[in-house]
Amino acid sequence: MNALTEADRVHDRRWVVQCALSRICGGCAMSLGRPVVFLGTPDEVARNAFHLPPMHLACAEELRRTPGADPTWRLVTTSGFEFVRPARDDLDQQPRFEPNSLLGG
Amino acid sequence: MAISDVQEYMHLTDDEVDQLGRELDAIRKEIEESRSAKDAAYINRLIKIQRYLAVAGRLTLLAGTRSRRTRLPAAVAGTTFLALHKILENMEIGHNVMHGQWDWMNDPEIHSSNWEWDTAQPAEQWKHSHNYVHHQFTNVLGYDNDIGYGILRMAREQKWTPFHVGQPVYNAMLASLFQWGVALHDLDIERIRNGEKDPREMKRQLRQILRKGRNQVLKDYVVYPALAGRQWKTTLVANATANLVRNLWAYVIIFCGHFPDGAMHFTEEEIEDESRGEWYLRQILGAANFNGGPLLHIMSGNLGFQIEHHLYPDLPSNRYAEISVRVKELCEKYDIPYTTGPLYQQYGQALRTIIKLSVPNSWTSSDQPEPPTPSRSRKPKSDSERPARIKELGAWSRGKSQERQAS
């Protein structure tokens, strides 16, 4: 069984929105700390637009180690982020996060 | 009238809604890119003022009340300073910091992750019930718990029961004890009553509320009065009065946000596959502003720009005034109602609605167009229907989180 299944909620749109607005970790559901961490593919990192919800550093690192995790995921840290809802004519129809105060990767 | 399709209601085409969305996006982008040291200075100055007010209030009550000659003026001054400090901390600082409006500064203290505001409700629960439930499902009947807070009937579509006859009284109680009403808000009393609330989650939340509430009570009604020595009663009454003033002020401002005439309600059909442009439109139609000068706006957390706050909840509140000029222009361009008025009028309309809806619909006339949907019992959504706090994620879950264990 794919162990990542338990963490598949990070791909659930409603959960992503809840994390964005409640300022909670997509992994453990507790209040986010500082810095906020995003996991993303190299393309997402280049575009500064992430689909996975914000997380604690420890939760993001644990997700990266989980069997089934995307091996290309990279980790970036930020103090804050913008939450972007998709527009009707957007190519990307997923909600996304745009870090606004990157601290490092 | 509850709206099930904002685009249809406003007679806008797909292109017009998308274009409106793009124009509102452009405002957002401009503000994001222009955030600067000037904005940072604003919030830092405000926090400094709020803390000076707190210190001034406490010291005035401790020292100024010792002499019989200065006791009364010191009590009045101390109460006033405390009330102002509490209002500022609650409205312009705490509420806005917790929305993430200032996270971009990377300040270790002024950040949504760790700001714990000076009221009985734990910040974590506020961020769920307000930031998420209210801002995501703004004015959607059956989803947004702010439509009546579980005790008041605030929309004609909400089913009337004999319980509602008492709502002018419940309203007065809620106003005076607003801090405690807000503290209980995320518990979702109606779901508890219906046996739908996860008991483990409820216990966790109650523990948090009791801990925070206890600390608030100790601070204002035990520690500071004790420090005042023989004048403990004066200090206790001053603290209680300051809390009451803060409660009443916060209640008035918040009730002006979505209850004046012109602030619409929506059905759940509206939020199915809602695009960004439609989301923007629902925020404009579901909110109401009030007019005032800069001081009034600061003291009300800039919620006199409720429309702008709902369009951009995570942009710095000091920018809402300039944003409102642009938003008003867009509303004129697309013929979208922009609800605003003097504070007394907005609150008067909210109060009138509370009184009117305490009786069956057939006894009164609507102040809005008649609803096309018949009045029915709209049970608040359950956890599975409206995403609530996640209960269980398995091994990779809150059970392992240090934060979870600490709570």
Key words describing this protein structure:
heterodimer; A: 105 residues; alpha+beta; 3-stranded antiparallel beta sheet; two-stranded antiparallel sheet; 3 helices; 24% helix; disordered N terminus; B: 407 residues; mainly alpha; two-stranded parallel sheet; 16 helices; 2 strands; 57% helix; globular; disordered C terminus
Explain what the structure shows.
The complex is a heterodimer of chains A (105) and B (407). Chain A has 105 residues and is α+β, with helices and mostly antiparallel strands. Chain A is built from 3 helices and 5 strands; from the N terminus they run H-E-H-H-E-E-E-E. In chain A, the strands form 2 sheets. Chain A has a 3-stranded antiparallel beta sheet. Chain A has a two-stranded antiparallel sheet with strand order 3-4. Chain A is globular. Chain B is mostly helical. In chain B, helix 3 (37-63) packs antiparallel against helix 4 (68-98), helix 4 (68-98) runs parallel beside helix 10 and helix 10 packs across helix 15 (343-356). Chain B is globular, with a radius of gyration of 22 Å. Chain A binds chain B through residues 3, 6-7, 9, 14-15, 17-18, 21-25, 27-34, 36, 56, 58-59, 62-63, 66, 79-83, 85-90, 100-101, 103, and chain B through 14, 17-18, 21-22, 25, 28, 32, 98, 100, 102-106, 108, 111-114, 123-124, 127-128, 131-132, 135-136, 275-277, 279, 314, 387, 389-390, 393-398, 400-404, 407.
**Oligomeric composition of the shown chains:** heterodimer
**Proportion of beta-strand residues of chain A:** 15-25%
- Largest interface, C-beta within 8 A: A-B, 42 and 48 residues
The radius of gyration of chain B is 22 Å
**Bulk shape of chain A:** globular
Structural class of chain B: mainly alpha
Order of helices and strands of chain A: HEHHEEEE
Number of helices of chain B: 16
The helicity of chain B comes to 55-70%
Give the spatial strand order of the biggest sheet of chain B. Answer: 1-2
Percentage of residues in DSSP E strands of chain B: under 5%
Q: How does the major sheet of chain A shape up? A: 3 strands, antiparallel
- The SSE order of chain B reads EHHHHHHHHHHEHHHHHH
Terminus-to-terminus distance of chain B: 43 Å
Which spans of chain B of ≥5 residues are poorly predicted at pLDDT below 50? 370-378, 387-407
β-strand number of chain B: 2
Q: Could you tell me how far the N terminus lies from the C terminus of chain A, measured between alpha carbons in angstroms?
A: 31 Å
